[in-house]
């Protein structure tokens, strides 16, 4: 959402589903791996337990941000996670709001904000 003159620091686009630390890490990991990641790899990259990862993936899946595919490789269960198209868009929108927040905080502190250049990420 655009900022308004009456509430310039409300940052309405800071999505609570995404903003939680573990889920932010999960989405960032999945953004860096567009073809998806195995559950075990995602667990290791984000430093989560099986239970924590399962719970956070369920929240992200329920919100339509992540797709979880369960299957088998040989006789072993294999779970793959990837961002949905809507999840990628929503995450990029969230990052845009974070950029604005950093610029506003830097300005308030009397510093120059780091250059962002619209994330340098191409949305697909």
What can you see in these coordinates?
- There is one protein chain.
- The protein has 124 residues and is an alpha+beta fold.
- The protein has a single domain (16-109), classed as Arc Repressor Mutant, subunit A, CATH 1.10.10.10.
- It is 49% helix and 15% strand.
- The protein is built from five helices and three strands, in the order H-H-E-H-H-E-E-H.
- The protein has a three-stranded antiparallel β-sheet.
- The model has no long low-confidence stretch (mean pLDDT 89).
- It comes from Bradyrhizobium cosmicum.
Strand content: 5-15%
Distance between the termini: 21 Å
What is the percent of helical residues?
40-55%
Strand order of the largest sheet: 1-3-2
Mean pLDDT: 89
Pfam family, one: HTH_34
Domain HTH arsR-type: 12-107
InterPro entries: ArsR-like_HTH, HTH_ArsR_DNA-bd_dom, WH-like_DNA-bd_sf, WH_DNA-bd_dom, WH_DNA-bd_sf
Protein name: HTH arsR-type domain-containing protein
């Amino acid at each position: 959402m655009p900022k308004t003159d009456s509430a310039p620091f409300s940052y309405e686009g800071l999505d609570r589903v995404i903003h939680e630390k573990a889920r932010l890490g999960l989405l960032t990991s999945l953004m860096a791996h567009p073809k998806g990641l195995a559950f075990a790899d995602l667990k290791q990259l984000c430093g989560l337990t099986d239970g924590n990862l399962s719970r956070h993936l369920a929240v992200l899946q329920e919100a339509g941000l992540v797709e979880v595919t369960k299957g088998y490789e040989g006789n072993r269960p294999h779970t793959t996670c990837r961002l949905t198209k809507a999840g990628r868009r929503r995450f990029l929108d969230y990052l845009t709001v974070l950029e604005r927040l950093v610029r506003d905080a830097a300005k308030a502190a009397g510093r120059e904000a780091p250059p962002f250049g619209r994330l340098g990420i191409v949305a697909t």
